[in-house]
């Protein structure tokens, strides 16, 4: 996933497009920072939040990235 995001970000930047990349699916606390570093701007972490023992804390942790 990270390689694909990097490739997409590079293509967008080369064409000087004002496009944000949104990732929906597979986003976790463990990989969210790497996904953003690869070039994504918007993360959808539904299962990570709603299946968490403490959803509010999980949201807080994601926002700190």
The gross shape turns out to be elongated
Q: Strand-residue fraction?
A: 5-15%
Taking pLDDT < 50 over at least 5 consecutive residues as the criterion, the unreliable ranges are: none
Number of helices: 4
Strand line-up in the sheet with most strands: 1-2
Main β sheet profile: 2 strands, parallel
The termini sit apart by 18 Å
User: How many domains in all?
Assistant: 1
Series of secondary-structure elements, N-terminal to C-terminal? HEHEHH
What is the radius of gyration? 13 Å
Structural class: mainly alpha
Quaternary structure of the protein: single chain
Helix content: 40-55%
Q: How confident overall, as mean pLDDT?
A: 97
Number of E strands: 2
Tell me what you see in this structure.
- The chain is mostly helical and 65 residues long.
- It has helices spanning 2-14, 32-38, 46-50, 55-63, and strands at residues 22-24, 42-44.
- Helix 2 links the parallel strand 1 and strand 2 (42-44).
- The protein is 52% helix and 9% strand.
- The longest helix is centred in the first third of the chain and has 13 residues, at 2-14.
- The protein is built from four helices and two strands.
- A two-stranded parallel ribbon has the order 1-2.
- The chain has one domain (2-63).
Top keywords for this entry?
65 residues; mainly alpha; two-stranded parallel ribbon; 4 helices
Short summary:
By secondary structure, the chain is mainly α.
